[in-house]
Amino acid sequence: MGRKKKLINDENKTLAKPKKGKFQTVRGMRDILPSEQPYWQKVRRVAEKVAQDYGYQRIDTPIVEFRNLFEKGTGPGTDIVEKEMFVFKTKGGDEVCLRPEGTPSVARAYIQHGMRSLPKPVKLFYIGPMYRYERPQEGRYREMFQFGFEVFGEKDPILDAQLIQIANRIFKGIGIKKFSFQLNSIGCEECRPSYRKLLISYLNNRKNALCMDCKKRLKKNPLRVLDCKEEKCQQVISQAPQMIDHLCSDCKKHFTFLLECLDELEIQFSINPHLVRGLDYYTKTVFEIWPEGEEDGQVALGGGGRYDKLVETLGGASTPAVGFACGMDRIVAEMKKREVKVNFSSQPKIFLVQLGDLAKKKSLKIFEQLESSGISVAESFGRGNLRSQLRQANQMKVDFVLIIGQREALDETIILKDMNSGSQEVITFSKTVFELKKRLKKVAEEKLNNSDKKGSKNIKSVSKSSPSPKNSKNLSKKGNRTAKKKNRSSKASSRPTKRKTSSRKRKK
Ligand code: HAM
User: Fold this and answer.
1) pLDDT tens-digit profile of 305-318?
2) Strand locations in 54-206 (E)
3) Which candidate in 173, 228, 255, 409 could, as Cys together with 233 as Cys, close a disulfide (CB 3.0–4.6 Å)?
4) Per-residue pLDDT at 446
5) What is the pLDDT of residues 266-281, one digit of tens each?
């Protein structure tokens, strides 16, 4: 039996049966909650930056397309078209679908907008949701997000190599260091038919040893038998003739040059003769990106290849093309599994507290001034209670709190409270941005220094098994600092302070 993926019941409990009267997300679709956003943001940012660096221009195509675009493009016998499309009729009677992948849509756009006349190659990049009516499993959703790269108008294998280089850079940039490139060539219309015949005859002789699905595949799409994960089929597949042994001279040259480029780039890869990909449009190069530990490509992080005939199939002029797409949901899951660090620092470092109607009005302006000066600030304008606002500021672990009460609003002053030391002082409205920038810079420098010290301490403790007198001094210092820090944080939370009490009194 092939490896079975457990049915998931993820954070959003998408697979739970909807409780009567309670709305939930549709099966196989999920919310991406605020706590997950930093991961997604990192993936998007890295992919967008690399796209820009390599000269790819962003394209957005509609989520709804005509159904027959994929029937023709992706292929009528593929799982995607046969089983997985979300198809519906519009009120006007058009047969449409939610796009299951991006490549046919981008090829359609290339033809529709006459991009053939643009300087070649035409390099396009996209990010967006795709929809496949699959059985939801770990890493397999009905709404999933992809970013993709497509290049039109160049048949040179250097482009195939550059796309693999791009994928390599993106994965490294995201922080996923351990993955593998699986590579194969599935030939072209010249060499594939004779190989297909050879394969059919081999499989026909072993038909009884194949699973039910492969018996069907044998008739419709025999190459797909090669990537069947069923154990009984695996035995047959392991002895099957391989496409790379039957490539025509052009395909062989193409593949060899690609491998040489990857060697030159020092990118490691595995040649996987069973990799055929499940889409009809591929010619020559196909590849996938597998996370470390992946053995059969069930949850590939990405995949792609050359599709030199797709534009023509969709009614355009003969145009060689190559591309790949990656599953962002799977990438995020892998980042979490590998404990990839993401930047949560877009969180505000300042909290603005207001007490009373006049202060509330003044706060709106201060908030705008801070934000437009690039200082990210949090607030809770709906709350008038000091204690609940300070509690929120504490939970957000901000470095500074700005407090505007009735008197401050009249005096055009603000109480600036340092949440790390517990100290507070009064500053004028006009100096708020300046004073905060100065203090935020100091806090950032201190944090950097502390992390440097921590880093050098770690190096020392690694190089010496027992601490030297100097090191043990450092260790006791660290103990003191931690104790001080504890005191500070308990001070910060042991409010109300004098100033606060007086403003409360005034309010009364
Ligand atoms: P694909 O292999 O079908 O290729 O999908 C690309 C990636 O999307 C997969 O490697 C996987 O990471 C992710 N993916 C696919 N289905 C799901 C799902 N149900 N749930 C979560 N993630 C999923 C294509 O889509 C081609 N258009 C790639 C391409 C671009 N070929 C040439 N250019």
Assistant:
1) 999 999 999 999 99
2) 57-58, 64-66, 86-89, 95-98, 122-131, 143-152, 179-185
3) 228
4) 85
5) 999 999 999 999 899 9
Asked if residue 301 has its Cβ within 6 Å of ligand 1, the reply is yes
pLDDT in tens, 468-502: 333 333 323 333 333 333 333 333 333 323 333 33
Q: Distance of CA 216 to CAs 4, 70, 196, 198, 452, Å?
A: 21, 21, 15, 18, 62
Site to probe by mutation for ligand 1, drawn from 330, 331, 334, 335 as the one with most ligand atoms within 8 Å of Cβ, is 330
Q: Is the pLDDT of residue 384 over 80?
A: no
- How buried is 207 (Cβ within 10 angstroms: 0-12 exposed, 13-18 middle, 19+ buried)? exposed
Give 147 Cα–ligand 1 centroid separation in angstroms.
9
Cα distance from N-terminal residue to C-terminal residue, the chain: 75
Contacts of 187 (CB under 8 A, 6+ apart): 195, 243, 246, 247, 248, 251, 283, 284
Instruction: Check if the beta carbon of residue 352 is closer than 8 Å to that of residue 405.
Output: no
User: Is residue 143 within 6 Å of ligand 1 at its C-beta?
Assistant: no
Q: Is 152 helix (H, G, I), strand (E, B) or coil?
A: strand
> For residues 398 and 455, what is the distance between their CA atoms, to the nearest angstrom?
24
Roughly what angle, to the nearest 10 degrees, separates helices 192-204 and 212-220? 140
Rounded Cα distance, 322 and 149, in Å: 8
Q: Do 329 and 145 form a contact (C-beta atoms < 8 A)?
A: yes
| Full strand arrangement of the beta sheet holding 400-404 | 377-379, 350-354, 400-404, 413-418, 424-428
Q: How many residues does the chain have?
A: 508
How many CA atoms lie less than 13 Å away from 210 in the CB half-sphere?
A: 24
336-364 burial by CB neighbour count: b if 16+ within 10 A, else e?
eeeebebeeeeebbbbbbbbbebbbebbe
Nearest to 273, CA basis, from 322, 309, 230, 240? 240
179-185 sheet: strands from edge to edge: 57-58, 122-131, 143-152, 321-327, 302-306, 283-291, 179-185, 269-271
- Nearest C-alpha to atom 18 of ligand 1 is from which residue? 140
Distance between CA atoms of 230 and 211, rounded to whole angstroms?
A: 7
Distance 297 CA to ligand 1 centre (A): 11
HSE, side-chain direction, 13 A CA sphere, residue 157: 18
CA dihedral 83, 86, 90, 96 (to 10 degrees): -70
The answer to whether 111 and 318 have CB atoms below 8 angstroms apart is no
Q: How far is the CA of 227 from the centre of ligand 1 (A)?
A: 15
Peptide bond into 121 cis (omega under 30): yes
Model pTM?
A: 0.79
- Other CB atoms within a 10 A radius of the CB of residue 234 amount to 13
**Ligand 1 close to Cβ of residue 417 (< 6 A):** no
CA distances for 45 relative to 40, 59, 170, angstroms: 8, 16, 10
Q: Are 148 and 324 in contact (CB under 8 A)?
A: yes
Residue with structure tokens 């409780």? Answer: 19
